[in-house]
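Quick log. Single chain, no ligands specified.
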Amino acid sequence: MWISLIAIALYLLAAGLLVRAVAQDKLADSRAWLWPALAGALLHGAYHLLVAWRTPGGPDMHFFSALSLVGLGMAAMTTVVGAQGRMAGLGVLSFPLAALLLFVYHAYGHEPSHGLDWRLQLHAWLALLAYATLAIAALLALMLWAQERALRRREFHAWLRALPPLTELEELLFRTIAVGFILLTATLLTGVLFVENLFAQHLVHKTVLSLLSWLAFGALLVGRWRYGWRGGKAVRWTLTAMVLLLLAFFGSKFVMELVLDRA
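-> predicted structure:
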């Protein structure tokens, strides 16, 4: 579909405009990237709606579709936050990633999904929202690590000036983790309530890894509130928890759907 290729081009245009603004040290005043990013996200969402309309069964929730939907969530959140004047530079990473995931999904093709009732669809959508939010947190953690590293080495690059102050970036990181943690909690609760047979559906390893990730994110939030965790410790905990979450969902889907060829 041409709609996906146009969305990819718009994402890359938005990222290119952001890179130029960073190179010229004009990111704070630049809004040229906003409309291509918004249009790209809208077309990205429209592509998934068209696929759902044309594909028999329920919404396409297979491996590459789920990755693409997470990319859409990341792009949409970056656009909303960046439009408010905060962290527009995050689009340098999230927009190309969304474009790549959409391209892979388009190239791989679509598969009919088994019909899911509203309860399992709610569980699936909450999961995708949680993964997208916490993936944004992981990108923020990487940016925080790069910023701290550059400051320690007294390397004042143009991209460093495009980031907010260290304390503001850290605050945004923990706010994003808190929102993602709430969504992940809702995901686990709906899973417990709506999944009928945990063992028959081969979900034990997925559940265990998700719980470990939930505990890691929860421990990080408690550590921040109780002990003032920050900096490198916050980055390590965030990335460790995110790796566990990726293994829980996409690692499981990769093995089940692409290796074992099971729905």
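DSSP finds nine helices and no strands in the chain.
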